[in-house]
Amino acid sequence: MKHCTLFLLAGLMIAAAPCTVWGQAPAKPAIKSPSPAEGDIRELKLLDWEPRSRMVTKTTILDKPLFPVVDVHNHLGGGKEKLTPATVARYLTEMNEAGVKTVVNLDGGWGDRLKETLGALDLAHPGRFLTYTLVSFDGLDDSDWGDREAKRLEQSFQAGAKGLKFHKTFGLSHRFKDGKLLEVDDPKLDPIWEMCARHGRPVVIHVADPSAFFTPLDRYNERWHELNKNPGWLFYGDKWPKRQDILDQLHRVIARHPKTTFINTHFGNNAEDLASVAEKLDKYPNMFVDIDARISELGRQPHSARRFFLKYQDRIMFGTDTTPRRDAFRIYYRFLETDDEYFDSSQSHHRQGFWNIYGLNLPPEVLEKIYRTNAERVLFGLKTDEEKRKMAQKELVVRQTADFEITGKDQNPAWNKTLWTELSRRSPKGHDYSTKVKVLYSEKGLYVLMDATDSCLTSTFKNDYDTLWTEDVFEFFLWTDERDPIYFEYEISPLGRELPILVPNLEGKFLGWRPWLDGPDRKTRKATSAIGGELKSGAKVKGWQAEVFVPYALLSPLRNIPPKPGTSWRANFYRMDYDEGKTSAWDWSRVGPSFHDHKKFGTLRFE
């Protein structure tokens, strides 16, 4: 990464220390005031207006990103005539200069064109390119069109295509012979979505366009210049569908095909409405978004955008929609990595409105996910299935139930609604016991059931709130809202002693404190039982169980409570065992040395 600092003083540019430039962008030729012969400036046409900011702000120059980048949305062209060795070499030079590891090419087509594209990119330069295929809308009226295209799609996957791309003409322009528009959620397309799921290939899908493109081209349109220059991008009028209708169609498809991965381009195709995109991400775990060609929208709402990136850091991917060009990549890095203010982003794609943007200054762990690890986890062809399995964030679907009595045993019929989730041993040196959990939720609180094999109950504590983790114990952590570095921790021993605490965790510096338990609505309900032995200290057993109910009232200092269908919490489950002086530990979502590595928690999704 290149670091340099420049200051503009009295018209001179002086080099200084690292990474920042103070002042305006390099000066452009001054605008000459019109002479009377050139006309009255008060009659300047909007078409000719080119405002230049007078703000004096910091400029940070980033030649390369903090981590290697995967660009999940690019258009390199297809076929051997387009992808000559010289053209591909130019792409690679720009990628290397900008620290880009891999580019996804969405222009693969199908048949011979696809094979030529794969040969020029994926096969000639393994790991540097991933080529996606398309479907053909020819013969759309045929009764077997969907099945036929699904078969063609399967052949493309077998040939080496890594995914499927839909252009924005889908939902806007493709029509049946009778003139009726092909809607995004038309059942004829179901075999195509299902084929992608069957082969584990994601769908990169662009529908609709910025909201300004669906409004009149008048004095109120904030993207007048762009649309005036490109009138074919205006979709306002009776001949075009409503923008919201197209988006609704897409979301119905995502809901109907939960096993298919959808990467919604241009920040969910709705970068102007982050609340709506957040709602959809909460609702559809198979939906992801990329940032391509939308930092102009995101960067003018930096506070909201930064909160969004922090909360949904596992669901956002890097993309540019711009043929590899180092200067374009670097604008993206500046937007994501710095706190620079009010800078021109047009080099990242093209001029999109007469506003400048602000950097998000994202933390390194978030940048790494957006730049590469989210793509490595989701895309086909970047990582092996085993590597993806190890990378994947754990996820547990929590089903609803009516409230029931706690007995400390797996005997209430409500538990039959869900399956056991296994915990993994953190070290092969520990005892080879098994540990598993079940989770349910009601209108009043969360139910957790733990089952563990064991040989001895190493448990002596007789009081709640003791150092339970130093003996046999079961633990779960609930991080209900990622905006706040605060989570609930609960521990229970085989003898039923409990430790409920709230944990503020500021950059790894955590401090536990007891929630108040005054009033019956705030108290947990809990019970334990022994399997194959007595429930007493030192007893020889075959295992033990713990059943716990945590009322939402006890979690009231936290946000995002109570959960609703579609709500997500981060969480983790642990067990400690101390038989024969040997320490054994289990976790659900793998964390580092500390159980408080909360950014590696898994996800609970409430059904």
Structure commentary:
The chain is elongated. It has 607 residues and is α/β, with parallel strands linked by helices. It has helices at 85-98, 111-120, 145-159, 190-199, 224-229, 243-256, 265-269, 274-283, 295-298, 302-311, 326-337, 364-378, 385-391, and strands spanning 5-9, 12-16, 21-23, 57-59, 69-74, 100-105, 129-131, 164-166, 203-205, 262-264, 287-290, 316-317, 395-400, 421-422, 424-425, 435-441, 445-453, 473-479, 486-492, 498-506, 509-510, 525-531, 543-551, 568-577, 584-587, 602-606. Strands 13, 14, 15, 16, 17, 18, 19, 20, 21, 22, 23, 24, 25 and 26 form a 14-stranded mixed beta sheet that branches. The model is unreliable at 1-18 and 22-31 (pLDDT under 50). α4 links the parallel β8 (164-166) and β9.
Can I get a quick summary?
The protein has 607 residues and is an alpha/beta fold. It is 22% helix and 22% strand. It has helices at 85-98, 111-120, 145-159, 190-199, 224-229, 243-256, 265-269, 274-283, 295-298, 302-311, 326-337, 364-378, 385-391; strands at residues 5-9, 12-16, 21-23, 57-59, 69-74, 100-105, 129-131, 164-166, 203-205, 262-264, 287-290, 316-317, 395-400, 421-422, 424-425, 435-441, 445-453, 473-479, 486-492, 498-506, 509-510, 525-531, 543-551, 568-577, 584-587, 602-606.
Q: How would the blueprint of this fold be written?
A:
Layout: E1 5-9, E2 12-16, E3 21-23, E4 57-59, E5 69-74, H1 85-98, E6 100-105, H2 111-120, E7 129-131, H3 145-159, E8 164-166, H4 190-199, E9 203-205, H5 224-229, H6 243-256, E10 262-264, H7 265-269, H8 274-283, E11 287-290, H9 295-298, H10 302-311, E12 316-317, H11 326-337, H12 364-378, H13 385-391, E13 395-400, E14 421-422, E15 424-425, E16 435-441, E17 445-453, E18 473-479, E19 486-492, E20 498-506, E21 509-510, E22 525-531, E23 543-551, E24 568-577, E25 584-587, E26 602-606
Parallel strand pairs: 1-3, 5-6, 6-7, 8-9, 9-10, 10-11, 11-12, 13-16, 13-26
Antiparallel strand pairs: 1-2, 3-4, 14-16, 15-25, 16-17, 17-23, 18-19, 18-24, 19-20, 20-21, 22-23, 24-25, 24-26
Helix pairs in contact: 1-11, 3-4, 12-13
